[in-house]
Amino acid sequence: MKRLILAAAMALALPAFAVTPDEVLNDPALEARARELSKELRCLVCRNENIDESNAELAADLRVLVRERLVEGDSNDEVIDYVVNRYGEYVLLKPTTSGANLLLWIAGPAMLLLAGGVGVAYVQRRRKAAPLAEERLSAEEEARLKDILAE
Amino acid sequence: MIVELGHFALVLAALVAIVQMTVPMVGAARRWPGWMAVAEPLATLQFLLVAASFAALTYAFVTSDFSLRLVVLNSHTLKPMLYKVSGVWGNHEGSMLLWVLILALFGACAAWFGGNLTPTLRARVLAVQASISVAFYGFILFTSNPFLRVAEPFPMNGEDLNPLLQDPGLAFHPPFLYLGYVGLSMAFSFAVAALIEGKVDAAWGRWVRPWTLAAWLFLTIGIGLGSWWAYYELGWGGFWFWDPVENASFMPWLLAAALLHSAIVVEKREALKSWTILLAILAFGFSLIGTFLVRSGVITSVHAFANDPERGVYILAILAVFMGGALSLYAARASAMEAKGVFGLVSRESALVFNNVLLAVAAFVVFVGTIWPLVAEMAFGRKLSVGAPFFDAAFTPFMVLLTLALPIGAMLPWKRGNLKRTLQPLWGVLVLALAGAALIWTLQTGRSMLAPIGFALAFWVTGGALVDLWKRTGRGDMSSRFRRLRNLPGADWGKAISHSGLAVTLFGIAGLTAWESEDIRVAQIGDRFEHAGYEIELQDVSRVPGPNYVSTMATMAVYQNGREVAVLTPEKRDYPVAQMPTSEAGIDNGFLRDVYLVIGDPQADGGWAIRTYIKPFANWIWAGCIIMGLGGVFSLSDRRYRVAAGARKRRSAATGVPAE
């Protein structure tokens, strides 16, 4: 509990509050791009928050950094590359598709194909199955059935 | 004294559960009626004991008994009474006690309302349920005992509850979630009992459905409450963050929804049996995985309140025993579950198979995304994050496919259908949905496809639900059709209402995401500024003392067309004991939009940082959750589920002893 409070305090007690007025760029197009990029970058000291929403000081530094790169004329990809070079891929909320991460990205579609295949096979089997002869009810079940139907 | 009694009651409850786990199980195997009959009174007794234990802990919190460690760590004399009570489950130990309380409650309900079950199945269900209880009693007593005292001298006051949790929305969020998580334990117990019994039939499907429905309904409300809380409390109006712990509650929800639908096939058509059993096992398994994720500290998150590795290992062991045991049993017995129903490729059965494929794979995607950082670090040495952008991209297609297929599947007849005939009454809805989407596309300033698609899908699903209801009234003149509409079974209404609720939520999400607008600025007191058709005036900022916090409260007036719409008071609260600030947004709730104001920090020039959001259709998200829940209530009220209770009364009056 202590550690949670500490962590929470770290994330919330620092002065800034997400994007502050002085960070906002004058060029609305650049600012919009900065906001988009900020949503894909993780606040490194927070729990699963992007830097756009985070109140932490480090997130504010990153927001300013992203805006500086944009003002310098970087493309979106160049900004992301720059940040990843400095902080590692941990900073990306949307993981890359490189290496083992490919597994993560194809897991869904692959599973859908597999499950869909199994589903279709099952339906095909049920379609061709001969209707089973209805099992006879036991005497006890017969009695209960009567009981229920009499309700 | 009362605390000791509570502790003692908990130990007794554990002992009762051990007997309830073994005696009826043996009795069912040997067909000894006396041994089987023990299960029911024991289930009631176990519930009463845990309830007493829970009451004792609540008493300690309410009276601020600072000789209790848990109360010292999580309470304070100045805390409002509501949060003294909710503080009982606002921490790891207390929430586990709530968990076993609900577990015992469900067990007792199965004993009270299970009159229509065969005696062996009832005995086995209660025994399996008790075995889950035993595992969690052990967990509480050995690793997370809420009744531990502190050494004298006792502290004068407590350290207060995490201020983020001191909120009405969050006070009731955990109980609902647990009702959902633990409700799935009933489905699990039924599945395992049926595997032991070696028999799954239509009656089993009918018994398992109300429990699953109840669990799903509580999960829906619990998740909705959590999301609503995040919206107004965290200060920027987000409603879903794909946080590991949110995912932990979302996966069981998806699987419960799948189970709900597949159990219908078991009940009506005696097919999909072994898949339904597997789903019931997995759904509860994901509840346990959720518990593990939250309490082990493996994944950090807002909700992770216990980061004690020992506890993590214990929960992992529970997970391994129950999933391992149930799945082995499943592997051994599932092949005996012969399907009976025969159906064609185009049929309600096939549509429900499709529904299950989508929901299960969607849950799988969420699962993979949630544990991927762990896998990548352990297996590949890569430290990475998987956040909202991944889930948005990977999960959304499943919801689109699901809602596209939903109205058609919902109207297909059982056994064998004709796609053309089913689609015929739906063409109108489809055309209107597309026309509306096109209209929205031209009216908006060409930003995103999200809103038109969201609207079309929501209209398609809701319209489809209405057409389905109307078609069910058959032919004839209007008045007799309306009469029949009123008399349709609860399940039919429940289906239409729940599906519409889903549509309302989806539209809310699409509308909010696509059309939200935001303004960030520094305002001086007395400033009036314009944003998205509203004028906002910062009238005053003052310090206001609260019961256990100090608030910085702004008074802001919102005008539209020169007329005052609302006066809002966004706050920043400081909790001195917990040393933590929280933000309370000022929100003017509306049918079509929320005006959402947040006050930030004082600026050097004497002004205040102010954020203004216009959030279109925000309330639709939670309204949809409520509507979905309401649909669940309608379904539960269906007469067919009450037949069981009535039958029991009659029989026990007539014979006194269950027939065996």
Automatic annotation (TrEMBL), chain A:
GO MF annotation: an example: metal ion binding
Cellular component annotations (GO), alphabetically ordered: plasma membrane
Keywords in alphabetical order: Cytochrome c-type biogenesis, Heme, Iron, Membrane, Metal-binding, Signal, Transmembrane, Transmembrane helix
Transmembrane segments: 102-123
Residues in the signal sequence: 1-18
A Gene Ontology biological process term: cytochrome complex assembly
Keyword Membrane listed: yes
Domain (CcmH/CycL/Ccl2/NrfF N-terminal): residue spans on this chain: 7-149
rRNA-binding listed as a keyword: no
Any single Pfam family the record assigns to this protein: CcmH
Biological role: Possible subunit of a heme lyase.
Family according to the record: Belongs to the CcmH/CycL/Ccl2/NrfF family.
Name of the molecule in the record: Cytochrome c-type biogenesis protein
Species whose genome carries this gene: Aliiruegeria haliotis
Lineage: Bacteria, Pseudomonadati, Pseudomonadota, Alphaproteobacteria, Rhodobacterales
TrEMBL record, chain B:
Transmembrane spans: 6-29, 41-62, 96-114, 126-148, 176-196, 208-230, 250-266, 278-306, 312-332, 353-375, 395-414, 426-443, 449-470, 617-636
GO molecular function: heme binding; heme transmembrane transporter activity
Record domain Cytochrome c-type biogenesis protein CcmF C-terminal: where: 316-639
Major localization listed first in the record, in broad terms: membrane
Limits of the Cytochrome c assembly protein domain: 89-296
Signal sequence interval, chain numbering: none
Keywords linked to the UniProt accession: Cell inner membrane, Cell membrane, Cytochrome c-type biogenesis, Membrane, Transmembrane, Transmembrane helix
Cell inner membrane in keyword set: yes
Tree of life domain: Bacteria
Cross-referenced NCBIfam families: nrfE (TIGR00353), PRK10369.1 (NF007691)
Family: Belongs to the CcmF/CycK/Ccl1/NrfE/CcsA family.
Protein name: Cytochrome c-type biogenesis protein CcmF
Species this chain originates from: Aliiruegeria haliotis
